[in-house]
Structures are given as structure tokens and as C-alpha cells.
Design a protein that fits this description.
With 250 residues, the chain is of the alpha+beta class. Helices cover 33% and strands 26% of the residues. It is built from two helices and twelve strands. The strands form three sheets. It has a five-stranded antiparallel sheet with strand order 8-7-10-11-12, with no helix packed on it. The chain has a four-stranded antiparallel sheet with strand order 2-1-4-3, with no helix packed on it. It is rod-shaped and about 135 Å long. It starts with a strand and ends in a 5-residue tail after the last strand.
Amino acid sequence: MALVLDASLEKPLVLNFADSSSGLVRHMISAGLLQNFRPGQVSCDVGVGSLHLRNMFESSSIPFWTRLAGWAQVLVLIVTAVFVWLYLRETERLRNTGQEQVKASQSQVGAAYEQLTAIREQTAVAQDQLEGQIRPAIVVRLIVGAQGLRLINLGNGPALHIKLSPTDRGSGPKPDLDRFPDEIGFIEVGGSTPTDVRAQGAGITALNGRSLQCQYTSLSGGTHWTVADFDKIDNDRLIATRFYSERSKL
């Protein structure tokens, strides 16, 4: 049992005693400290306050603080959950913003690439137009009574560094073919020059069924080819002339 003395003190005075203290209670009653007290009574009055006798197993201030701590923990959990939710929402917003920025950057890169492609195409067109203004075009002619073939420049610009080579009939341009001894420095626009190359006959300069490849360059540095095909049976008859060009180095 516990005896709590409350006599307008700041803190109650709690006296603990065992069952054998009943004599102490009788002594306090006889001394007038306990008023209106009856056996089995839980509380009684005193002159300056009150005297409370409580079972120590009844409710006290400890459960209240326990409940208060529990509510505090709940409040902390709620606040933590709010902060976590705010953090997740802000993270989602930043992620969406980052994705939008990446998409915008990709769009800008794509637009820049398209612009670059357009500039390259325009540059290529301008180079082709310039090359067309100065491009040479050599053709091969068989001159009756002449010892060799004649080259004539029908293009818009001079042909430079002309190299003659035999090649297979119907083949395209081949830059690294073996050349005939003849090597011509240039042929001006509308000009012509004879060669020692023959359509048929004896010697290393005779084609005898092969085609003739003429390789030359323009003023812009572009490489051009002319391939002349002769008849397989009648080698003295020119049957086709084909032109090929490489892009200018300007």
C-alpha cells in the first residue's frame, strides 16, 4: 500500500509501508492526523489538506507519459512521412525536368545536324556548279590517214595532266592502270592533240580490241576520266565514249 500526504505541498509526500504498518495508521488516527478514516477507506481528510491512501497498482503518471511518448512517436512518423513524400515529389519533378531538358537538347542536336546536312548539300551543289563551269571533257577521234588517235577537249575548262592507259572493254575508271608512254601536259578549251596510241596494229601502243582510258584533272583539282570503246571486230571503229568524274577538292 502507499500513503500519499497532500498538505498544499508542491509535491505529494508518499509514504510506503507494508501490511504490518496498520499500527502506524492507528497511531496517526489517535494523534488526529487522520480524520474521518474508516478501515478499507482509500482516502481521508486532514486539517490543512487531504490525505490519500492509494493502491500502488492503480493508474499513476507513468501511463500518461507513456501515452504522450506514443503520440510523439506518431507525430514524428507523420512528419517523416510528409517529408519523404515531399522529397519523392521533388525528385519526380527534377527527373521530369531532366528528361525534358534531354529531349530539348536532342531536338537541338537534331536540328543542328539537319542544318549541317543542308549546308553540306548546298556546298556540294555549289561545288558541282563551279566544277560544271570549268570541267574539261576529252573525246577520242579516229583521224583517217593518221598514225594515232587524237584527243579533243570539248569541255568548259582546260584538261591538265592527261594520262592514257589501256583498259578492259566496258570497264569503269581505274586510277592505277599502267600508262602508255604518252603523257600530255594540258589541252586548252576547244584544243586537240595527237597521240601515238592506235586502235589496232603492232607495238605497245596498239589497243587491239581494248578500250582507251584518259585520266585528267580540272582547274579545281577534280579528277575526270574518259573511256573510249572500240568495236570488237573492227577495231578502227569507235562505238562508245563514257565520262566519269570525281568531286572537286576545293
